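How it folds:
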Amino acid sequence: MTAAFPALRLRRTRIAPWSRRMVAETVLTPSDLIWPLFVTEGRGVEEPISTLPGVSRWSVDGIAARAREARDLGIPCIALFPNTPQHLRTPDGREALNPDNLICRAIKAIKDAAPEIGILTDVALDPYTEHGHDGLIDEAGYVLNDDTSRVLVQQALVQAEAGADIIAPSDMMDGRVGAIRAALEHGGHPNVQIMAYAAKYASAFYGPFRDAVGSRGRLKGDKSGYQMDHANAEEALREVALDLAEGADTVMVKPGLPYLDIIRRVKERFEVPVFAYQVSGEYAMIEAAAAAGMGDRDALAMETLLAFRRAGCSGVLTYFAPLAARLLGA
């Protein structure tokens, strides 16, 4: 008499670690990581950010050291964000156009310290405006789209001149990608990439980031008039289509984990490199859970990063980048 047994046992390939590695459908490597870093004034400065455990603001010399660290860990790219001093924040964000501002000095320091590292720079005015919005505002507090775009073009050119490899407009103004692409082409920077924050949602997960760049408490109103509504998915596809048509090389979905469905839909629809930003609130929640004994930090971090790759991401901006790279190299 023939014993009853399953014709196929899917557990067979899961039993041994070597077998699980062999049949893994998704792979995470250090090359899939972009490390966001915060720049501040001074020399020899490291300022821990209380709402982002394990993350600090660094002076330019410290940023150069982090670039060498990224190179040694196999992380290919760094994303830079400034903590602009209070006295340089103005209604028009003019410090964004200063070729000797924090970001430009950090770019040059990284190019000297680790020229192999790619540099992604944020194009938006919120780190430079006294009101905390991503663009110029009128008397009623409305963010002016076309006036802002003209400033963003100048900001992008300043960053490209300093040596940025990827310009990343995060402001969500309509038409700014096409304007920046044209300016880069005509300004002698045809090979500078644009990674568009194409689907950036007006999220509650950005709080610790605003602490890091010194903009929390400055914001008058909110950003729901230009960042996307959490309820909308079809609109995200329209945003991505427009940015690609205007010349974006890659696109980003932000935040990350709450929007894995958007990442998947963008990847399937457009078949282009899609990135996610595992934003400050996502990172802080994992750190808080680990500190409270609710889970293992390393395991939580690696599982979420693999989820981004499984959803279709070519890469992830994450504060866990150095931790993940070390774990992957262990």
